[in-house]
Design a protein that fits this description.
The complex is a heterodimer. Chain A is mainly α. Chain A is built from 22 helices and two strands. Chain A is globular, with a radius of gyration of 22 Å. In chain B, strand 1, helix 2 and strand 2 form a beta-alpha-beta unit. Helices cover 40% and strands 20% of the residues of chain B. Chain B folds into two domains: 161 residues, Bordetella uptake gene, domain 1 (D-Maltodextrin-Binding Protein, domain 2), CATH 3.40.190.150; 120 residues, Periplasmic binding protein-like II (D-Maltodextrin-Binding Protein, domain 2, 3-Layer(aba) Sandwich). The chains are: A mainly alpha, B alpha/beta. Chains A and B meet through helix 3, strand 1, helix 9, helix 10 and helix 15 of A and helix 1, helix 2, helix 3, helix 6 and helix 7 of B.
Chain lengths: 496, 326
C-alpha cells in the first residue's frame, strides 16, 4: 500500500492529471494521435523527480488520447485518432439527433470500463495471454484482417456495392510505397515522399475533416447540409449509465475481445475497435440498426479500443516487445528509467510492476473527470459560429498532417483527399469502408505473401492451423447467420 | 460564386502562411545565429530518435541555441537523409545519418550517398548477431550453417524487411561462410521486435538483429546468441562468440553518426566538430548509451570518411550478390 500513498501526493497527482488533460487535448485534435501524445510527453516526464510520477504521466496520456479521439468523431465526424474511426458511425448519428453528449458519456464510461477490464486481465493472466499471442503468425493475422475487411459491407450504410468499391479503392491506395515483402517500389514515381506510402493520418483527416470544411463553406454554413452538429439535448449522465447497463454484456465482451486483439503484436486499437463493432453487429438482435445511431454501436468499439491499449502492454511487459507504436515509445522510456521489461521483470522487480499496474488502474478512474472536462469543453466550443469551427478544423488538419512527418507533402495529400472525400460523399460513396481498406489492405497482403514465403507456396497452413480453422469458421458463421436468422424470423411471420 | 472563392482562400490560407522568404547567407562569425535542427530520418520513439533528442539537448548547452529534433520519416530513411543533405549548408541543420545511407543508393531507393554530406563523426555501431531459441538443435554457429547447407531453403530467418540492414548483414555473412543466400529463406517483417515474437512463437528458426534488441529474452534464457558479427567480442557481452572465432571473416554493424550538408563553411564545421567531440567524451554520453544499450563506437574526421567509403563498397558487393541491386 506504500505505493498507493506515494501516488496520492500532490507532486505525483498534479503532473499526472496535467498529462491526462494534455492527452485529451492531443487526442481530440484531428491529426494529432495517441502515439504523438506519448512521444511528446516522454521527454517532459524525464524532468519529474521520481520514476513513478513520470510513469504516471506517460500511462495517463496513453489511455486518455484514445477516448478523446472519439469526441470530434462523434460531434464533427472527424476521428481524432485512427482508433476512433468507428465512432464516426453510430456515435455521430446520435449526435446528429442531438444526443452527442449522451453518446459521449456512454463512450467515456465504456472507455473507462474497457480500460479497467484490460488492465485487470493484464494483471491476472498477462503471461498466459502473451503465450497465446505467440501462436499468432502470418496465417492467423491474414484471417483476422480478412474478418476486419469483411466488415466493409457492414459499414457501408446500406449501400453494399458502393461500400465494396470504396474498400477496394482504400486497398489500392494502400499499395503505394515500398513493398515490405519484396522491397519493390509501387506507384512511387521515384518520389521519396511516396516511398513510405500515403500517410494514413493525412488521408483520414482529408477525407473526413477537409471534405466537411468544403461542404460547409459551399453550403454557406447551413446546418442541415452539414455533418456537424451543435444542438445538444443535454442528457444527464444517468441516461448514459442506464443505457450502458442495458448493454453490460456487450461492454464485457468487447473489452475482452479488445484486450486479446491489443495483446497481438500485429494488431492494435484501431483493428480492435472495428472487430468489436463487426462482432456486435453480427450477433446483436438490433444488427440492422447499426450505423443509424444504435447504442451498442457506440459501446462496442469504444470499450474495445481502450481495452486494446491495455492489451498492448501484455507483450510489452511479458516479453519486452511492443504491441503497438505507443508501447514501443513507452518501452524506450522505461529503459531510460532503468526498468527492463521482459520475462525477468516479474521476478526481479515486482514492486515496479505493481506500481505500473496501480497507475494503470487509477488512470482508468481519473479518465472520467478528465474526459468529462474534455467533452464539456468541446461541446461548449461547438456553440461557436460554424464558420469559426470550420477554420479551426482546417488549421488543426494542416498542423496535424504536417507534424506527423514534418512534411508539407502530407499537407498536400490531406488537401487532395479533402476533395476526394467531398466528391465521393456527393456520389454517396461511404467513407468508412475506404478507411478499412486502407488500414487492413496492407495487413491482408503482407501476411498472405509472407505466409506463402514461410509455407513455400502452400496454402494449407492458412486452413489447417487450429486458430486459422477457428477464424475461418467464425467468418463463415458470421456471414451465414444473418441470412439464416432472417429466414427463421420471416417464416413464423408468414404463418401468422 | 463568392462563396467558392472564400472556400478556396480558406483552404489556401495555411499554405500562404507557410511560405516565408529564405534567410540571406548567415555569417560564419555569428554561428549559431538561430536554433539548431537535428534531422532524424526515423520515427519518434525509436532508438535513433532517442539518440537524436539527446544530441539536440547537448548541442543546446554546447552552442547556446535551442536544439530541435525533426523526424523526417519515410522511404526507408530516404526522405530524412535527402532533407538533411539538401538543407542550407549553414550549420543550423545537422542530420543523424544511419546505416541505410550506405545501402539505399545501391538499391535504387535514392541517389544520395555519403559524399553528399560533410561527415562530422560516428557515434555508435551495433553489431549484427545470429540469435536462436534456447532449445534450438544447433549448439553453435557451425552446426547451424551445416544445417542450412545440408537442406537449402529449409531454415527461415528474420529481423527486418527484405533488403533491410539485418537482411544484408546475414546475406553477407552467408556469402562469407559459403552458404548461398537463398539457402536460408528471409521472412520479411517490420523490424526486430516482431521478428523476435515470431522466433519465440516457433514460427521461424533464427533472427538476425543487434544483441541489445533481444537482450531481455537472452538474459531470461529463452533465446541464445550463436554469433556476433563484430571484430572482437562485445564489451558488455563477453560470453558471446564472434563469427570470426568460427573462421568466418565477416563484420556487419548498424551505425549512427552526424553529418552536415556539403558546402558548410570550414569554420562552422570546426565549431560543430568541437562541440560534438565534447559531447561524446562526456560522462553523460556514456551514461545515456549504457542505459539505452547502444554500443559506443567513435570515429572522427578522416577515419569516419574512410569508414563510410568502406561501408559503401562492402554493401555494394552484398547487395549485388543477394540480387537486390537496381
Amino acid at each position: 500500500m506504500s505505493v498507493l500513498s506515494e501516488l496520492f501526493q500532490l507532486h505525483v497527482l498534479l503532473p499526472w492529471l496535467l498529462g491526462m488533460l494534455f492527452g485529451i487535448f492531443v487526442g481530440a485534435t484531428p491529426g494529432l494521435t495517441a502515439t504523438m501524445a506519448v512521444a511528446l510527453i516522454v521527454p517532459v516526464s524525464f524532468y519529474m523527480p521520481d520514476p513513478n510520477t513520470g510513469l504516471a504521466m506517460i500511462i495517463g496520456v496513453s489511455f486518455t488520447a484514445i477516448f478523446a479521439g472519439d469526441i470530434p468523431a462523434t460531434y464533427l465526424r472527424i476521428p481524432g485518432t485512427p482508433a476512433s474511426a468507428a465512432a464516426t458511425l453510430d456515435g455521430h448519428q446520435l449526435a446528429k439527433q442531438g444526443r452527442g453528449r449522451f453518446a459521449l458519456l456512454i463512450d467515456l464510461f465504456c472507455s473507462s470500463i474497457g480500460g479497467l477490464v484490460g488492465v485487470t486481465l493484464l494483471i491476472l493472466i498477462a503471461p498466459q495471454l502473451a503465450r497465446f499471442a505467440l501462436k499468432f503468425s502470418n496465417f492467423e493475422y491474414f484471417w483476422l484482417a480478412i474478418f476486419g475487411l469483411s466488415m466493409s459491407a457492414v459499414v457501408s450504410s446500406g449501400n453494399t456495392r458502393r461500400g465494396l468499391l470504396a474498400a477496394a479503392f482504400g486497398m489500392l491506395l494502400a499499395t503505394i510505397g515500398l513493398d515490405v515483402v519484396s522491397g519493390a517500389q509501387r506507384f512511387t514515381f521515384s518520389n521519396p515522399e511516396l516511398m513510405g506510402g500515403l500517410g494514413f493520418i493525412p488521408v483520414m483527416i482529408g477525407l473526413f475533416g477537409v471534405s466537411e470544411v468544403i461542404r460547409s463553406v459551399l453550403s454557406g454554413f447551413k446546418a442541415e447540409d452539414s455533418n456537424t452538429t451543435n444542438s445538444d439535448k443535454g442528457d444527464s449522465a444517468l441516461h448514459s449509465l442506464v443505457a450502458i447497463w442495458k448493454h453490460k454484456f456487450t461492454v464485457i465482451k468487447s473489452s475482452m475481445a479488445g484486450t486479446i486483439i491489443g495483446a497481438l503484436p500485429g494488431a492494435g486499437a484501431d483493428i480492435a475497435a472495428w472487430a468489436a463493432y463487426g462482432l456486435e453487429q453480427r450477433t446483436s438482435k438490433k444488427g440492422a440498426n447499426f450505423g443509424k445511431g444504435e447504442v451498442a454501436g457506440v459501446v462496442a468499439p469504444t470499450s474495445a479500443n481502450n481495452a486494446a491499449v491495455s492489451g498492448a502492454w501484455i507483450p510489452a511487459l511479458v516479453f519486452g516487445i511492443p504491441g503497438d507504436a505507443v508501447t514501443a515509445i513507452v518501452l524506450g522510456a522505461l529503459m531510460m528509467y532503468e526498468i527492463k521489461p521482459g520475462p525477468l521483470i516479474f521476478e526481479q522487480n515486482p514492486e515496479q510492476i505493481n506500481a505500473i499496474f496501480l497507475i494503470a488502474l487509477i488512470t482508468q478512474l481519473l479518465l472520467i473527470p478528465c474526459g468529462y472536462l474534455g467533452l464539456k469543453t468541446f461541446g461548449w466550443l461547438l456553440k461557436l459560429p460554424r464558420s469559426m469551427i470550420m477554420v479551426a478544423v482546417l488549421v488543426f488538419s494542416v498542423v496535424g498532417s504536417f507534424s506527423l512527418r514534418n512534411s508539407i507533402f502530407d499537407v498536400y495529400v490531406m488537401a487532395i483527399f479533402g476533395l476526394v472525400g467531398y466528391f465521393l460523399e456527393a456520389k454517396r460513396v461511404p467513407l468508412a469502408p475506404l478507411i478499412l481498406g486502407l488500414i487492413l489492405g496492407p495487413m491482408v497482403e503482407e501476411n498472405f505473401r509472407t505466409g506463402l514465403i514461410k509455407s513455400e507456396g502452400s496454402l494449407l497452413p492458412f486452413l489447417n492451423r487450429p486458430i486459422c480453422a477457428f477464424l475461418v469458421l467464425l467468418l463463415i458463421v458470421a456471414f451465414i447467420s444473418p441470412l439464416l436468422l432472417k429466414r427463421i424470423r420471416r417464416k413464423p411471420a408468414k404463418l401468422v | 460564386m463568392t462563396k467558392s472563392i472564400h472556400a478556396i482562400l480558406l483552404i489556401l490560407l495555411p499554405f500562404l502562411i507557410g511560405c516565408k522568404p529564405s534567410d540571406p547567407n548567415a555569417a560564419a562569425a555569428s554561428y549559431p545565429s538561430k536554433s539548431i535542427t537535428v534531422i532524424c530520418p526515423w520515427a519518434a520513439g525509436g532508438g535513433t530518435d532517442r539518440l537524436s533528442r539527446f544530441i539536440a539537448d547537448q548541442l543546446q548547452s554546447e552552442l547556446g541555441k535551442p536544439g530541435v529534433v525533426i523526424n523526417r520519416t519515410g522511404g526507408s530513411g530516404a526522405v530524412g537523409h535527402s532533407a538533411g543533405a539538401l538543407a542550407k549548408p549553414d550549420g543550423h541543420t545537422i542530420t543523424m545519418i544511419t546505416f541505410e545511407l550506405s545501402t539505399m543508393h545501391w538499391m535504387g531507393i535514392s541517389d544520395l550517398t555519403w559524399e553528399d554530406y560533410e561527415p562530422v563523426l560516428q557515434m555508435n555501431a551495433d553489431a549484427a548477431a545470429i540469435i536462436v531459441r534456447a532449445d534450438a538443435p544447433w549448439k553453435n554457429l557451425n552446426e547451424f550453417l551445416a544445417a542450412a547447407k545440408a537442406d537449402p531453403g529449409k531454415l527461415t530467418m528474420s529481423g527486418t524487411s527484405t533488403g533491410g540492414a539485418w537482411d544484408l548483414a546475414r546475406a553477407g555473412f552467408q556469402l562469407e561462410a559459403d552458404v548461398p543466400v537463398e539457402a536460408i529463406r528471409w521472412i520479411p517483417t517490420k523490424g526486430s521486435a516482431p521478428s523476435i515474437v515470431e522466433l519465440l512463437g516457433g514460427h521461424i528458426d533464427a533472427v538476425c538483429c543487434s544483441v541489445p534488441e533481444a537482450i531481455s529474452q537472452i538474459e531470461a534464457g529463452q533465446l541464445r546468441t550463436l554469433a556476433v558479427m563484430s571484430e572482437d567480442r562485445l564489451l558488455d557481452y563477453p560470453d558471446m562468440p564472434t563469427a570470426k572465432e568460427s573462421g568466418i571473416n565477416w563484420v556487419a554493424v548498424g551505425w549512427r553518426g552526424l553529418a552536415v550538408p556539403k558546402g558548410t563553411p570550414e569554420p562552422i564545421l570546426q565549431t560543430i566538430r568541437e562541440a560534438c567531440e565534447r559531447i561524446i567524451t562526456s560522462p553523460e554520453y556514456d551514461d545515456f548509451m549504457k542505459k539505452n544499450g547502444f554500443s559506443t563506437e567513435i570515429r572522427t574526421g578522416d577515419a569516419f570518411s574512410q569508414f563510410l567509403a568502406d561501408q559503401d563498397s562492402q554493401w555494394k558487393t552484398v547487395i549485388e550478390a543477394a540480387g537486390y541491386a537496381k
